[in-house]
Amino acid sequence: MHILVFNAGSSSLKCHLFDWMGVAEHDTPKSAIWRAHVDWSRRSAPARMTIESAASTKIEEEISKPEIASILRRLAATLPASPELACHRIVHGGSLFAHAAELTPEAQRKAMTFNHFAPSHNPIQLEIVDDAEVLFGPKVRQFGVFDTAFHATLPPEEYVLAGPHHWRDRGIRRYGFHGISHQNVSRRTAQLLGRDLRDLRLITAHLGNGCSLAAIEGGISVATTMGFTPLDGLVMGTRSGSIDPGILIHLVRQHGYSAEMLDAELNKESGLKGISGISGDMREVLDAAASGNNDAQLAFDMFTGSVARHVAGLVTALGGLDALVFTAGIGENSPEVRDAVARKLRFMGIEIDQEVNNSKPIDQVISKTGTRPLMLAVRSEEDWEIARQCFAAAGSMLC
Ligand code: AMP
């Protein structure tokens, strides 16, 4: 059995083909046998495509008409095996999808009703589902895994927002995102610690271009920092995170801002990029700070301060903390960020082991022996988790 995973964002598409033969539900993630990355950040320009496979040499090429159907046709022509399942990451499943689901025409229609909640993700992800159906035909079953689904367990005091009562009728509430990553990382943490997930109180810190925390009690998400959209919560690469909403009113009234201008500035020009004036990429911020740039240092301090402050806040939802787990591009790779967050949380008993932290740790404990709460760095493995959840959903539908 081969499982093809599509993980599409507004600027790129990542695809992985997994050989699922003999894989058991809680196996540790295995490498894909084929992977592709398509950069379509400029939709009118050629899309850049990189395809790697254990069976052949790396392919790098440009595709002049970056329509999704032609990109998928080109990718499919390089697959070393035919997939039986096609699995899709879908960002927004609203309150209708609490689990992975087969993307029947009815499920696709339901998912489309959330397109306006995630306009730069859902439409493109559902377009891929349509084109994949044409390409592979009905014998390849298609499933969706929703970024919001893991947070379907949030209690009302976490998902209701303190706006006017009618917001609830309009679906304006906290949904939370990065659920696929938070779910996988919490499960892997329990495995790595040799503990039962049901006995653990965890905070998982997904720190990538987008950043969010989840408070997870007994494997269930009970609080999270992203909200109605992925703009809320932590300072991110180019997103502001939580800011005073009065600023938006001021910009509209005094500076004539439109919704498009607010969207562009809050999503693309804020966060690390806005503070540093240099970049939303943590590596570039770290380099600039190391060479004495004060704004880059300020961006780093505000980023790590925002993580620490939100971790401390989320502990209240758990009534204690067994482990703080770092994942995604920054969380997995930056000892500087993990160290600075740990220092800011020292009052909670957290202490990082500097030697381990600096040794490119992955899937391991990074806190000092004997200290509590524990700290870990765990790979996000979103694509494996998407395949795992779809395989489980497909299997349960056969029973
Ligand atoms: P992601 O969205 O998970 O791909 O993460 C992207 C972020 O991870 C960017 O801000 C990168 O700068 C950051 N990142 C990747 N590698 C490193 C590294 N070695 N040190 C610091 N940040 C990194």
Would you kindly provide a brief summary of this structure?
The chain is of the alpha/beta class and 399 residues long. 37% of the residues lie in helices and 20% in strands. It contains 14 helices and 14 strands.
Describe this structure in words.
- Helix 1 (68-77) crosses helix 3 (122-136), helix 9 packs across helix 10 and helix 10 (294-318) packs across helix 12.
- The radius of gyration is 21 Å and the shape is globular.
- It folds into two domains: 2-146, ATPase, nucleotide binding domain (Nucleotidyltransferase, domain 5, 2-Layer Sandwich), CATH 3.30.420.40; 195-377, ATPase, nucleotide binding domain (Nucleotidyltransferase, domain 5, 2-Layer Sandwich).
- Helices cover 37% and strands 20% of the residues.
- The protein is of the alpha/beta class.
- The protein is built from 14 helices and 14 strands.
- It has helices spanning 68-77, 105-112, 122-136, 156-159, 179-193, 246-255, 259-268, 271-276, 282-290, 294-318, 328-333, 335-344, 354-357, 382-398; strands at 2-8, 12-19, 34-39, 47-53, 56-63, 85-90, 101-102, 141-146, 201-207, 211-217, 220-224, 323-327, 364-365, 374-377.
- The relative contact order is 0.12.
- Bound molecules: adenosine monophosphate (AMP).
- Adenosine monophosphate (AMP) is lined by residues 208-209, 237, 281-283, 286, 328-330, 333-334.
